[in-house]
Automatic annotation (TrEMBL), chain A:
Keywords per UniProt: Membrane, Transmembrane, Transmembrane helix
NCBIfam families referenced in this protein's UniProt entry, alphabetically: CPA3_mnhG_phaG, PRK12674.1-2
Key word Nucleotide-binding present: no
Name the record gives this protein: Monovalent cation/proton antiporter, MnhG/PhaG subunit
InterPro entries referenced in this protein's UniProt entry, alphabetically: PhaG_MnhG_YufB
Organism of provenance: Neorhizobium galegae bv. officinalis
Regions crossing the membrane: 6-28, 40-60, 66-88
GO molecular function annotation: sodium:proton antiporter activity
């Protein structure tokens, strides 16, 4: 009974991770400009790979493996926003445009303010 | 095969198919993406999907050592994205207005050197030209 419960949790994590990866890929193709595509790639994509790593840790069933999987999960969750912010800042500073439906651009006169 | 193994096996197969579809969609964005930052975002996403593949292989084969490989791949992907961001910052915006992969490739050829090489045919250096004037 216990192993069936563990298998169900693992299967849920696997399918959830794959679903998040699929949502991220669809968002990457459907969203209008670079800055909105970054939302899909850096949030849903990171959660997808992180859930799959957690599934490995739960499936193995011993503490060291689970701790390593948890460390990997936190590593991805910490590094994805850093890289996404760096890339968005570089692209905005260089002058890649926002899409036409954008409402406001908070960083329009960022260079003049600092 | 017990019930638990059957559940895991079906879930892994379905997840492999779903990850394949999302991988192909992301590759399509890498090919199509009109600007360089679009391609960099898609490459970052590809690293995440490959980490998911490695995790699924770890579940299928039972080798938990694959977790370390996934972590190091994530580190390499993070460093690559940071390096690409620095490159975009230092390169400036010189994309063609209608994003076309071939156009950006041909635009990166250094223009002045090609022109000066075409202007001066071989055998007519400054000394030869001076002699010809006399």
């Amino acid at each position: 009974m216990m192993d069936i419960l563990l298998a169900a949790i693992t299967a849920l994590l696997i399918l959830g991770g794959a679903g998040f990866a699929l949502v991220a890929a669809i968002g990457l193709n459907r969203l209008p400009d670079l800055y909105t595509r970054m939302h899909a790639a850096s949030k849903a994509g990171t959660v997808g790979s992180g859930l799959l790593l957690l599934a490995v840790g739960v499936h193995a069933g011993d503490l060291p493996t689970f701790a390593r999987a948890l460390a990997g999960f936190f590593f991805f969750v910490l590094t994805a926003p850093i890289s996404a912010h760096l890339l968005a800042m570089a692209a905005h500073k260089v002058g890649y445009p926002l899409c036409a439906e954008s409402v406001r651009d908070e960083m329009k006169d960022y260079d003049k303010r600092i | 095969m017990t019930t638990a193994e059957t559940i895991i096996s079906y879930a892994v197969w379905l997840a492999l198919v779903v990850l394949c579809v999302s991988f192909l969609l992301t590759v399509w964005r890498v090919i199509k993406g009109p600007t360089l930052p679009d391609r960099v975002v898609a490459l970052d996403m590809l690293t995440g999907i490959v980490i998911g593949f490695i995790a699924l292989i770890a579940i299928r084969t039972g080798f938990t050592l694959y977790i370390d490989i996934a972590i190091s791949l994530g580190l390499v992907g993070f460093l690559a994205t940071v390096a690409f961001a620095r490159f975009i910052l230092s390169r400036g915006n010189r994309e063609a207005p209608k994003g076309d992969m071939m156009k950006t490739f041909t635009a990166s050829v250094p223009e002045p050197r090609r022109k000066s090489a075409a202007r001066r045919p071989s055998g007519t250096g400054p000394a030869v030209r001076r002699k010809a004037k006399k």
